[in-house]
Amino acid sequence: MDSKILFLKREYFLPLLFFIAAIAFTEAQKKQIELTDIYEQGQFRVASLGGFNFLKDGISYSKLKEGKIIRLDLASGLEKEIIFDAGRDAKQIPNFKVESYQFSSDENKILIQTNSERLYRYSSFEEAYVFDRGTKQLTRIFSPGKVMYPTISPSSENVAFVYNNDLYFQNLSDGKSQRISKDGQKNKIINGASDWVYEEEFTLTRSFEWSPDGKKLVYIRTDESEVKEFSLEYYRDAAYPEVYTFKYPKVGEKNSKLTVWTYDLKSKKNKKLPVSSDMEGTEGYIPRIHWTKNSQQVCITWINREQNNVRLYLSDVKGKQLVKLYEEKNKYYIDIHDHLEFIDDQNQFLWQSEKDGQNAMYLMDGAGREIKRITPDGMELTNWYGRSADGQRVYFQVSTQRGLERQICSTKLDGSDFKQISSGDGTHDAQFSQGAKLMVHSHSKINTPPIHTIRDSDGKLIRALEENKSLNERLEQYQISQVEILTVPNRHNDVLNALMIKPLDFDPNKKYPVFMYLYGGPGSQQVMNKWNSFRYYGWLQMIAQKGYIVCVVDNRGTGGRGEEFKKSLKSNWVNLKQKTRLMLPDSWLQNLMSMEKELVFLVGVMEDICPHFAY
Fold it and tell me: Which end of the chain has fewer CB atoms within 10 angstroms, the N or the C?
């Protein structure tokens, strides 16, 4: 028996040796990653869907491709119509390039943005045009200059925008523009747009909204005249830097003062509403404005400066009646979100909150009382997609596997009949069509680039859209290490999520320097079972191929794991200056691999290093 086994081993030993040698030779033939591969050639760039939009007919979608807006058939993917072609429809404008576009509610007009200039993180100035699909006419919105936040009204008759800190609208029939506010001034008064603080901290850029009937506007007036100025030097390859000065309130300094106004297009009158950033003797912010289902009523979100008390106020458009609809307080802080939706004329609304310890969606009545928690207990809501055509079924994304993965789910509006639509491990995301009949389903894993498909609302596959075959082929040309997902115990017995990239020729008997990439801000996540969850795939792979063990850890305070985990570091960040050294938690690296403890390289935001190691 033993000799037979020995004989079989000898019989297969030589072919096995050749097989191993062939693998080694193949790997040796593959290229090493260079910076030019990453940042100049874009070899690790993921293919996107490029301006994908479901269309109202339910059987087609639009996509931006090579300067053209194309209508395609959902089932077959065949091109049905070139809706807009810059070379054909904008030939009178040299070098016209479609950067982004949006359809009017009736889809007869397209608002096209081009030649944009960045202001801050999200805001920009751009040239805006409206293309009429019937007349084939292309009309410039406000020819005197570039505008901000051009938005078509629900009635498809007008476009509102901000120019030089004032709010305007332009009628699409006669092309005439009307100035709504008249006191806009740089570094003093802003109408309809946000200052730096609101854009950076609340992701609020456009601070005006059309009423449901398209006959009114609600907007925020920002008075930043008492905010102190800050100057930066911009180096743009010139001999001297450009000095840029803007209003920047540091901690404890004065913030902008905000008021809310409405404008009636027919009467051409502005009305100030009885809501401001300072309410009931408390300093605060106005991070969101909404319309209810009624075009005569506005909902204003207010939050105090400490950001642990949020209120929803209802005001009529003339400012004569003010009602506090809802109030919520939190021992930590409250995150501002965009998932407030009024669903009927009785002001029932959907409200996202962490008041029960997990991020969840609630159905509330017109008096601000909870009717039902919609998303299931024990599940952390991570994205909200919307409702079915009849409004009785809702679609959303939840966090699973200790925050590592995402799944797409649905329930009825009363929280019953829960269904998980997506299947398989990894990260699932979606973009739903109007009425949630169809979705673009996106799925990836830590070592698998995203695949985009069209599916029905039950998850049934209709057709593949983008499988990133080109990226997979390019990856085969390089020496790529597998990314491993691990768990890390810290000194407080928390289980932290981590990932690791080892050198391709890793030898457990050798010692390696460790390169740690860190970003651990509140609610952020770098470690997920998702392609490039840490954002710098090519660069970190390049670090690993140079002989480093690359590690990323999600510290306490990161997202997807409930309120207590996310908010545990509130007002409790460790001061790096008080620490004489960085301590690896429980020597976990030494337990996992051979390493040079003295050679640990840290890259990341300094505030975020401490929770990883010293807290």
Answer: N
